[in-house]
Amino acid sequence: MERTDIFAVLDMKTQRAMELCSEPGASSWLTARPLQKLGHELNQVEFVDAIRLRYGFHFPDLIGKCGCGAQNTSDHALICKVGGFDMWRHDHLRDTLADILRYAGFKPVNTEQPMLPCDGFNLPISANIKAEARMDIVCRGLWSDMQASFMDVRVFHPNAPSYLKMPITNLYKQHQNQKKLAYMRRVQEVEQGSFTPLVFSTSGGFAGEVGKVLERAARKICDRHKESYAETMSFIREKTRFSLLRSTLVALRGTKRRVVPVSVEDVDFRDK
């Protein structure tokens, strides 16, 4: 039976789950050796949650109400901003990617690097011209010797209600284009560097430009450490996949409450 024949008898939710499972790298966590020193181990609850997420199964034991007041579901938990888990997921993946580039031998590799002021430049209205703008990852030599390569990370949830009617490939293109509109011209004209958006989905897939960066890093690792390309690429995919998986599972079960700021001046340290 052909793949198209199988898809024809599936409902839309299952079709989307199977499409997400089929993306390059999305299934690498299932075939990785569960080595604790690499962070590849999952406990029983985490493994079951990962399987449920993978196939779009129902979570019978999630809390009924999210901290934001909305009805809680696995999809809502992965897009809700209360609790800061979306930023933690982003930062964890950013740091993982930076570590891979450092291991490949790119120098220097900086994270959260402030961008140069863009006053006086004629940038498009879509550009991020904020003085406090930062770039997730900056390194040199990625595409050409000594040129600064700027990379910005985005992680989106493909099963968010607003995305359900959009093909997966279109979602990647949309997020890549949004990043380019915000940063491409500023990086090229002000920083005199190259810009690459690093777009991932919570299901473990990634956009085409991510694949080019990972391939470039893999070949550098092969040359530097005398490893085979297949094993190196497998290692990189496992590393990025577990980074996404772990942070996604934490967001799924994490406590989400609105934090009310408290001034230090209002705290009585003598109160025991």
Could you provide a short overview of the structure?
This protein is of the alpha+beta class. Helices cover 45% and strands 11% of the residues. The protein has a four-stranded mixed sheet.
Name some characteristics of this structure.
9 helices, alpha+beta, 4-stranded mixed β-sheet, 272 residues
Structure notes:
Helices cover 45% and strands 11% of the residues. It is an alpha+beta fold. The chain has a four-stranded mixed beta sheet.
Shape: globular
Structural class from helices and strands? Answer: alpha+beta
Summed over residues and divided by their number, the pLDDT gives a mean of: 89
**Percent of residues in β-strands:** 5-15%
* Tally of helical segments: 9
Percent helix among the residues?
Answer: 40-55%
Distance from first to last alpha carbon: 70 Å
Indicate the radius of gyration in whole angstroms.
21 Å
What sequence of helices (H) and strands (E) makes up the elements? HHHHHHEEEHEHH
Spatial arrangement of strands, main beta sheet: 1-2-3-4
What's the main sheet like? 4 strands, mixed
Provide the fold topology.
Blueprint: H1 3-8, H2 12-21, H3 28-31, H4 44-55, H5 74-77, H6 85-104, E1 109-114, E2 134-140, E3 148-156, H7 168-191, E4 194-201, H8 208-225, H9 229-253
Parallel strand pairs: 3-4
Antiparallel strand pairs: 1-2, 2-3
Helix pairs in contact: 6-8, 6-9, 8-9
